[in-house]
Amino acid sequence: MTDHDSPAQVERVPAEYLRRRQAAAAARLVALDLDSLAVTAPAQKGYLSGFTTGVNIAPGGAVLVTRPGREDVYVTGGTDYLECRTALEPEGFIVHPYYYARGQNVHTELGTMVGRLGLRRVGVEAKYTTAKQLGELEAVLAPHGAAVVVVGEVVDPLREVKDSWEVEQIRRAVAVSGAALAGVLELVRPGVSEWDLAVELERRLVAGGTGSPRVAFQSIVASGPRSALPHGAATRRVLAAGDLLTFDFGATVNGYCADVTRTVCVGPAGEQQRRVYEAVVRAKDAAIALMLPGRARRDSAAAAASVIEDYGLERYLAHGTGGHGIGLEVHEGPSTSSDGEWVAGNVCTLEPGLYIPGWGGVRVEDDVLITGDGQEILTRAIECGRLLEL
User: Fold this and answer.
1) Model confidence over 321-334: pLDDT tens digits?
2) What are the C-alpha distances in Å from 363 to residues 59, 319, 328?
3) Which end of the chain has fewer CB atoms surrounding its CB within 10 Å, N or C?
């Protein structure tokens, strides 16, 4: 093993932050009268274990979160056992493997650990549990005298409020994303294809060791009339002078995502292109101004929509005017369409867009941190105040 491959080189969530997460989850178990919570969704496992750098955020099968005073358990397949044990045993987890060749699976071994620990009420989150999974878990827990209790969201509300370590990872992912875009914009010119730009963008998102080997999502590169497609994946289309060109992309750092969208023009822009761009940016800024602690989340999207209506362009709002939370997933809570108020530690995108069929579209997206007394635009350094003419 080289120094570069050494586990010491892999960044983990600092112990103090991980303990706070686990304590908060344990407190929720007490409130719900549960002995434990079986968690199988990758982002939930990563959040509760601090293991966020795997190919799928957190490898393995399930985390068994327990009440205060008991050890948490990480149940994993044999293929990931060594990796999980190396990462998690120092954090106090019992790491328990299962092997298909022995007739075991994640549910049988969850049952084994539930019986070994003497647990009686095991919760599962309805949002992340299929009927098949529920039946399998009930079958393996019954012989141990344990019942499965289906509950609402337990971990998601905790993940919505980022701690300072999480915010720093998102900052770093934003910085990597901004540097990648800056390099790609130098290549924009008539005759270059969307495909070539997308390949180079994703190379830069993961190159140099500053980000991670995983991009946050498949990058969107859409030009000309195709920029009217909110989720237009790159094609072999060649850029032409006067095209609008939209990039939607993000790096990850230690599992945490950035999500940035910028629209530029290939060469000089026309009056209508500048007007549509101006409407989108003003809508975005009006929405972000209301992303304040204690303010209703829905107010932000409403403010952006009002600006678009003032421009008479509301019929082109196919994508809406709001945004979504980012963190271990590129789409998570909270969102501007969800009930509730902004609280310090929320990190949410704001991404209004206008899409005119046959003409093109404009979307501009910023990542915003809610602070104790306002907000911080994490993507401010990535220019978007004016329509760049390349």
Assistant:
1) 999 999 999 999 99
2) 35, 9, 23
3) N
